[in-house]
Please model this.
Amino acid sequence: MGQARIALKRIKNGLNAQSMLLVGLRGVGKTVLLGKIRSEAQSADYQCISAEAPEKRSLPALLAPELRLALLRLSSTDRAKDHAKRGLRALAGFIRAFRIKYGDLEVTADAEPEVGLADAGDLDHDLFALLEACCTAARNAGSGLLLFIDELQYVAEDQLAALIVALHRCTQQQLPLALFGAGLPQLRGQMGRAKSYAERLFSFPTVGPLDSEQARIALVTPAREEGVEFEAASLDSIWNQTQGYPYFLQEWGKHTWDLAERSPITPDDVERASRATLGSLDEGFFRVRFDRLTPAERRYLRAMADLGAGPHRSGDVAVNLKRKVQSLAPTRAHLIEKGMIWSPSHGDTAFTVPLFDHYMKRIMPGAAWREE
Model:
């Protein structure tokens, strides 16, 4: 949060600020942190554009509706009114230029396009022109424009490239613009492939699991405020089962609280709560991801789980499936595209969802999964 606060202050003071992309596995709290940064920015009167990037959704479709709302807000400010109206004309030209190319771009314009303004049909050029107009309006209102995009790894790399270009050009003009995003660990590589100079524009803070002391504090502090204590062995049990991942700590804490009858909370309470917690996670957190997989993708992940938590060499997964690495390459690529796995280094494969190896063994027990 400290780095984000510094960036916000720099933008307010008319200085360039490095954009920030939070990266980490599922369940580590990236979205929560992104929301906290956005809340502070809104309190400081920034114009905040918020979006979550689902699979197959275009970047123009994500940004256009939010930019429209920001420009309409700015148009009610006397100092920014004329610039905001020009921004709306830029948005109208942008929509007209890309509505056919990006079929999911359905937002309605509130002005007539201005010929030659963000309407060339080249995303690199037009996105910059649109953001430039929006930032100019925000600056005249004494504010800045901040983009908050979650699940950024789902944005296509050519569109990421256009976003990087636009941010770079706006930065060169010292316009009040920054991107705060969040995504899976592969986002670093995607940004670098999209534009080689991305590393100069962004910081990539890694959000990971809590260590044992941090996890203990997260569990003990709210319970103690209600007059409830944990036995030390209970905390050790929860730590061992959650591996410090914040979402799992939250779930284990909730179910343990609900099931424990008295203080202090004992290891027996945790054991009973663990069954309820796993049942809840299996039906919700894990199952929604499992249901999106094809049979071939499920077998691939089950073969990974058979080898342990990972990461694993792609060749070892292929051996476990009694297949050639090349024949499994499309399946692996689809799983990366779906955000289920990532490659920490060349040839390695790891789960993006913590504890998913345990779930795969529960949902596909025995050896029947090996059958085609």
Observations:
- Residues 202 and 355 are 30 Å apart (CA to CA).
- The domain at 292-370 is CATH 1.10.10.10 (Arc Repressor Mutant, subunit A).
- The first strand starts at residue 19 and ends at 23.
- Strands lie at 19-23, 47-52, 145-150, 177-183, 202-203, 312-313, 341-342, 348-351.
